Amino acid sequence: MLFLNINFITINGKKSSKKVVKMRKNQAKRHQKGNSNPHYIWGHHAVISALKNKNRKIKKLYITEKNISIIEKIDIKNEHSFTILTLNEIDKLLLSNSVTHQGFVMETLKLEKKPIEDCFNKNLIVALDQVTDPQNIGAIMRSAKVFGAKSIITTKKHSPGETGSLAKAASGALEFVDFIEVTNLSSTLTTLSKEGFLVIGLDELGETNINEVKINNDQPKVLVMGSEGKGLRRLTKTKCDIMAFIENKAEDNFSTLNVSVSAAISLYQLSSSS
């Protein structure tokens, strides 16, 4: 069902080029005035999921001509017009030719931040201790969506926040998994513990195999992951009820798992035990 209207068509024409030049000039003017630059998300799944999210506040939508048929087939919660651009024009809009946008770009407001209290009724959530790579956080969001974790908590400092790269890596999961930022992760874990959460930290030097963690199905759980370089900070570890590890079966103990893969394995195990 089609809910969108075409408001500007450009296919390899001069008119489209002028449109892109105008958009780039407007970006420059906003930057000179001290205003924030436009917030874009891109990629097929990221943009389609955003269109289906009634809470997503969309400003502009840009697609290529061949993607019109994809837009026409989906049930869109946000009625919005769109502009057709070529792939090169979208590259110019994003000021990059290295972004894999697949002919889908959306200018939007960032999603409204949820308070930590929204986690209290969730059965499984994830907390990230200074994980800074948006690709990793996006991949963790995808796993969270698949395995039933409803929220991801990061720190306001030492985390990327909602970015286009994160949205692309999340492949639409950003619209379904609450993205919560806190000032102090240690105090947040204390709060969650008081609310009845079992706090499970993951560390290669942990004491309990993640496969052997004993779980009460009625007790909510928070999986705490650290950065690949430093792992969990000392104070964060003190807030964990269990320090778990993923068994490494390599003969030479070769470690190849990054934080997003480790999160996927752990979330699968915890969700299977629930």
Describe what you observe in this structure.
The protein is an alpha/beta fold and 274 residues long. It folds into 2 domains: 6-108, 2-Layer Sandwich (60s Ribosomal Protein L30, Chain: A), CATH 3.30.1330; 116-273, SPOUT methyltransferase, trefoil knot domain (Alpha/beta knot), CATH 3.40.1280.10. Helices cover 33% and strands 19% of the residues. It has 9 helices and 12 strands. It has helices spanning 14-32, 44-52, 68-72, 87-93, 134-147, 164-170, 185-194, 234-238, 259-273; strands spanning 6-8, 40-42, 58-63, 82-84, 104-108, 124-129, 151-155, 178-182, 198-202, 208-209, 221-226, 242-245. A 7-stranded parallel β-sheet has the order 8-7-6-11-9-12-10, with helices on both faces. A 5-stranded mixed β-sheet has the order 1-4-3-5-2. α1 runs parallel beside α4, α5 runs parallel beside α6 and α5 (134-147) runs parallel beside α9 (259-273).
Topology (SSEs and partners):
Layout (H helix, E strand, L loop, with lengths): L5 E3 L5 H19 L7 E3 L1 H9 L5 E6 L4 H5 L9 E3 L2 H7 L10 E5 L15 E6 L4 H14 L3 E5 L8 H7 L7 E5 L2 H10 L3 E5 L5 E2 L11 E6 L7 H5 L3 E4 L13 H15 L1
Parallel strand pairs: 1-4, 3-4, 6-7, 6-11, 7-8, 9-11, 9-12, 10-12
Antiparallel strand pairs: 2-5, 3-5
Largest sheet: 7 strands, parallel
Bin the helical content: 25-40%
CA-CA gap between termini? 38 Å
CATH topology-level name of the largest domain: Alpha/beta knot
Number of helices: 9
C-alpha-based Rg, rounded: 21 Å
